[in-house]
Amino acid sequence: MFELTTTRHNPLVDPSLHAWGWEIPVYLFLGGLVAGMMIISGYFIFSGRLKNPDCACNFLPFYSIVFLSAGMFALFLDLENKINVWRLYTTFEITSPMSLGAWILILVYPALIANIFVRPPQPLLNKLPKIKLVTEKLNQRSFLIKWIGVLNMLWGLLLGVYTGILLSTMSARPLWNTSVLWLLFIVSGLSSAAAFVHLIARDKYERELLAKADNGFLTVEIFVIALMFIGLLTSSQTNIEAAKLLLTGPFAAPFWVLVVGIGILIPLPLQLLAVNHKVKHTPVPPLMVLLGGLILRFVIVYAGQFSNWMNVHF
After folding, report:
1. Apex 161 CA angle, 156 and 164, nearest 5
2. What's this model's pTM, rounded to 2 decimal places?
3. For 176-202, what is each residue's pLDDT tens digit?
4. Between vectors from CA 94 to CA 91 and to CA 98, what angle results, nearest 5°?
5. Residue 220 exposure: Cα atoms within 13 Å on the Cβ side
6. Which of 61-70, 158-167, 199-208 has the lowest mean pLDDT?
7. Tens digit of pLDDT for each residue in 203-261?
8. DSSP string spanning 23-48?
9. 117 lies in a domain?
10. What percent of the chain shows pLDDT beyond 90?
């Protein structure tokens, strides 16, 4: 599918939905989720909330490492020539999205580990007492802690943008070749991350804060989706046909029901009512947002493989 990958089931030969794998959509979803969590955690660190032992920034790095590793494993499973993956790290090509992405994925780990060093959990300190020395030195230099927050926000942003740019650079797929795809993925990643942290946060203030933030991300996501369709429908006939895949074609039902309906339109008013204390906070809206974010990647990847310049009449 990408430079070191080949799609095992070519949609030009076999366009049936079941023929395509799950690895790339899952990788894109987990990458976007981790990107959003890094931005949230970095913001909390920068704003000084890490002094609160229940701050989400104290445990989000662990989730991020697990999710990012799972996403990279899914990407590895999609590689046709798995043995050649090491070659990505023998060079750096700034014009290659795959080269940039490979290095971004690796450099995210030091940022997450630095986040852990700021306030490591007691079980980790018991097993590795030397970490305490690093933590004490960091806490003696507040400017370093703020820079760790900035570093996490920066790398989170790069990771989120990369997941969209990776697809949008492929001009052979009209549905992917849109200038707002990266924006859709970063907003969706932030929304999914806010929903996830809202779901697991221990601090009541953070739960409400992230529910409010998620409402904002979901609102922006609606406008970005509208912009994507406007861009496609005002372009060439091939782009119009690509848009129809989501508007009225075979991908319309999962897109409008699962992504827009269940993933955005239903949880948005529920969370608005919850943050205004009209209804009780429940895990249902954030779970719906997470499901919508996951299905969005599946729909975009599958529909994008279905769309092509050689076959205008899909």
Report:
1. 135
2. 0.88
3. 888 899 999 999 999 999 999 999 998
4. 75
5. 16
6. 158-167
7. 889 999 999 999 999 999 999 999 999 999 998 888 899 999 999 999 999 999 999 99
8. HHHHHHHHHHHHHHHHHHHHHHHHTT
9. yes
10. 54
Tokens of 59: 């445990």
| Domain contains 294 | yes
Percent of residues in the chain assigned helix, strand, coil, to nearest 5: 75, 0, 25
Residue 3 is assigned to a structural domain of this protein:
no
What is the distance between the alpha carbons of residues 204 and 268, in angstroms, rounded to a whole number? 19
State the total domains in the chain: 1
Say if residue 198 is exposed, middle or buried (CB neighbours under 10 Å; 0-12, 13-18, 19+): buried
CATH of residue 196: 1.20.1630.10
In-domain check, residue 142: yes
C-alpha 1/C-alpha 9 separation (Å) is: 10
User: What gap in Å lies between CA 267 and CA 284, rounded to an integer?
Assistant: 8
Nearest to 215 by CA among 285, 291, 141, 167: 285
Query: Rg of the chain's alpha carbons, rounded to an integer?
Result: 20
Please give the residue range of the domain that contains residue 96.
Answer: 17-306
State which H helix or E strand residue 158 sits in: helix 142-168
Give the type of residue at 206. E
Mean local confidence (pLDDT), 110-127: 86
Residue type, 183: L
Residues 6 or more apart in contact with residue 58 via CB below 8 angstroms: 50, 119, 121
